[in-house]
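A note from the maintainers: we've had questions about how concatenated examples are separated. There is no special marker in the raw files; a new sequence line simply starts the next protein. For clarity in this README we add a label.
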Amino acid sequence: MSATDDLRKFPWYFILIFCILSLGILTTGYLYYKNQEGYIKKEKQQELAAIIALKVEQIISWRQERLDYASTIMDDPFFAMQVMDFFRGKPKPLLRKQILERLTTLATYQYRSLTLVDPQGHVRLAAPASGRELNPYLQSLAAQAIQTQKVIFSDLYLDEDSKPRLCVLTPLLVMQGDKKITVGVTLMSIEPYQFLYPLLKEWPTPSLTGETELVRREGQEVVFLNELRHQKNVPLHLRLPLDSPHLLEARVARGQRGIVEGLDYRGVPVIAAGGAIPDSSWFIIAKIDAGEIYAPLKKLTHEVVFLLIILIGSAGLGVAYFSRNQQISFYRRQYEVERERRALAQRYEYLTRFANDIILVADRNLLIVEANDRAAVAYGYERAELLKLHLLDLYPPGSERVLDTLILHGKETSGLIFEAIQQRKDGTTFPAEVSLRQLEIEGEVLFQEIIRDITERQRTEEVLQESAKNLRHLASQLLRAQEDERKRISRELHDQLGHALLALKLQIEAVATKLSPAQSTLKTEMHKILGYMGTTIEEVRRLYLDLSPGDLEDLGLTAALQSLVEDFADLQKHAKFTLDLDDLDGLFALPVQTAIYRVVQEALTNIGKHAQPQHVSLQIKRDGQNVSFLIADDGKGFDRHSNTDKKTLGLLTMAERVRILGGSFDLWSQKGHGTKISFTIPITGES
């Protein structure tokens, strides 16, 4: 072939290359355009999904705030008692005024009105005053709240004035015996235009057509629940067919979630995100007109054409360079992956071989296929012998059914940890903790057991249990010695110091009677001394009664606890006390009575020192062969984790006394919500 022929073919060769490159660049430009179109669409979809998530979270939080607030009303026994007295007794103007004041106070907390309904569903009080009875829908909700004794959050409904409303119905509960009864229901009406509709109307990003809709499904219709951007007077009035194939709201109401494209209530194409509000019949939709979303693509078209002209001259070189680098990177990654795989295999082999725990791997028939060196040492087999055994050979005779059950359970879960007895080659056994897991390696099902000898751990646990038992016995003896010492000191205060002070008082009185009228100043001083003596004698009396309450031995536990509460009530004039106790006499031996008395005394002392309560209650009830105690106050409460050592020691002493008696002790407290101490003592009989 001549040089002339080569020159003749040369331009056509480059033209062909140019055409191919141009075609590739144009294709790339088209794909870029489509990619940007998809990116813009995806970005808007993510924005809509984020808006939906935000709105759902805000609505859930708003609903939860209303429910939490209603729960505080439900947990208020004093308000419930007032309502019960108002319903059951003759109308008392003062009680009616107090309840109305409470309802008026509650109505200021984002509620349009509050209504008090009796168990028969009749409106008894309302704030503000209203003579209307409940409509059938609200009557059914009130009945549901009374029956379930739970707070009910209504759906949106139209009131008598055809305006949308929501309400929260709260049962008022009173303890009668060992169960709660419902004495009434508070119905708190919510104005959706105050928070819910403004929340839905607010759009977090600039948009000319962005809109949030709240709908629900009623029969074969979609009902719009909120005000819309492009149409007025909508809530609970605008209804569209549920079976509309292209209607966006109908598709969401039928169960479609996530990103949805279709026509909205105006018949305009939109892109939207749909979701459901948990624990309600509401569906929420965030939508933007498709025309607004795709508007930036017009400008993008000009930019893409300009970019294609620039890229045509350099596309071939760029593609070749990129292809070469991709190939080099691919082979480099392959090399790194293979090197890491080999290193990992070596490390795994090292770990399994020399691990301190026993590691066994068995096939689907439970035949051992792998074992580490520790397994051979622990079981007394050579490694070659282990690889010929069945897993059952390492368990004592009779373990077949147990092992089959464990293997079956291990298949159904991600793993299983249990304790079992293992058997060595010489027939001896040892306790072990076994971690059983099913593996699948290259399509083969395997079972891996990681076994740890827990002989020493069990011995340590036994020693610790014995130590705990001894410590509890020592604590019991120390508390008994403490009570004996208190009794001894009490007797000395009563028999010696008390009598000495009384004798001294009598002597001073005798001297005072012999003073002449001219000694009036001295006589006045003597009377002051007698007053101080009386106070001192009374204080000594209080001390020896606190050290050893004589009422326990003289009158019994019931009278002693009543006297303790009465004395405490005299000191705490600002608090109201409620005492509800069964007869406890003859149920406990004297040492047990003393311990119970001390626990109650310590609890009341803590209340007096720290709680500053308005109400204190003590309930003591017999339940079969147990007696339960509940001491509750509505004071300041505290955080147990940040409590002082002194308070913690007092609580520990109370709990230890109860545990020594074989009972259970529980404490609940929260700052600003009071404290509850409950404990149960088994009945042993008086000895």
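[label: protein 2]
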Amino acid sequence: MTTEAISSGPVSTGRPSHYPFLAVIAVLLGAFIVSFDTRLFAIGLPDLRGALGLSFDEGAWLATVATAPQILIAPAVAWLATVFGLRRVFVGPSLLYIVVSVLIPFVRDYETLLVLHFVHGLLLGVFIPATIMIVIRNLPMQWWIIGLAAYSFRLSFTGNAGVSLVGFYVEHVGWQWLYWQDAAIATLMAVLTLLGTPREAVNRALLAKADWGGMLLLGAGLALIYAGLDQGNRLDWFQSGTVVGLLASGGALVIGFFINEAIVSEPWASPSVLLSRNLVLGLLAMMTYMITSLSNTMLVPNFLTVVAQLRPEQTGGLLLFYTALPLFVVLPFAVYLLRRIDARIVAMLGLTSFAIAAFMGTHTTQAWSLDDFIPIALVQSVGQGLTFTAFLIFALSNSNPARATAFVAYIQVMRLVVIQFTATAMSTFLRVREQVHSNLVGLHVSAGDSEVGQMLARLSHHFMEHSASTETAAARAAVSLVSLVRREANVLSFIDGFNVAFWAAIAGLLLISLMRAAPAGPLTPKLAR
């Protein structure tokens, strides 16, 4: 390792697995569960509200309570795995998760639902960090790139296949299987973890020096910030005392965490792991990926929902067949490339794909339907398969895998808080731009304008042909014209969103150009060692 490699944090080495293939499958299943549940509340929340009899506000808080606990526990999981071993950290929560997932569909009391979803989210927070630790601690080095590719695969696959799967469960099987599916997968995951990971003794020396205060401060602070971001658009941001209180208290706890890490003798997640030039640039570039990838996870499905007026089960096929399934080809290709060329080049190929897809998205019109998005979806699949995997490999290449506990904690911050921040920022941006465009388009719609009068006359005639009275037809014509203005404003706001995604990809490419080669190690290509 060169001096660029980070060596802060407790030593985290484990016994090699005798069945690495089983461990990789367990990694993939655990990551799938977490990503699917995140997608569930993004896409299936309206159906859940109807099934559980919840108001809009109750559903919004349920979604927040179901996700925020992930952040409370996730940063500490890598340290817990180092101390107690992956079997103890992974298998027990998996079994409890099965019970909670089976129970939730039978509950109708709102307070009980909140409690169960809090526990559900807390257990979900264990799975993703533990999967990275399985790769680094228990897989032979030749399996590391494959294991990390499996980890990143879930982000792209479930984000796209989840839309179709949520629609299928709600329409054909029963909404309860949104939860019961997880119970079945968690059972298999627990079995594979038992078979694929070795027994490890408790690290009592490290346990005696535990930085419990630092873990609690960071986890609680980030969870409160997440809750504030998640509720911000609904409660109108700083006009709400709840949002201000959540963000301020969360920020204070995070500041307290950094103070704690500076003064304790054995910091759990020292910020010094972020002092490497390559890591700072890598994490910033990863943020640009999270922004540009919204063209896939938010802009395309939301356009089809808001403008084309399609339901998830109608749009899911596009994302499943043209983005999710091609990943089975793109990911092995990414592994092939990462074994032979610099991860920076692979990341550049991925970001270039996203830039192309976003540029194509800037040419959308209100007439676009599912088939028009197929080329965009295919290009986005290439971007999804190459970019995150390459960034993850590059980041870990610039850290000491034996001391990865602190760095994995910060990866969880990126995964949960930064993703939520970028998604919230994009939602706010789209809402504001829709209002701006609606106003600008409306300025050209005047009651005395001849073209407006002709449009109203055509619409009125259309409604009168369907047995509407003159007064009713005129009223419907006015409402239809307003809808047309709103639809056009939404189209223009999505074009603005695609422009943001395009420039985010360009910014990521510029950041990659500033990175240095990673030090030679097990994650760097053979030619660079």
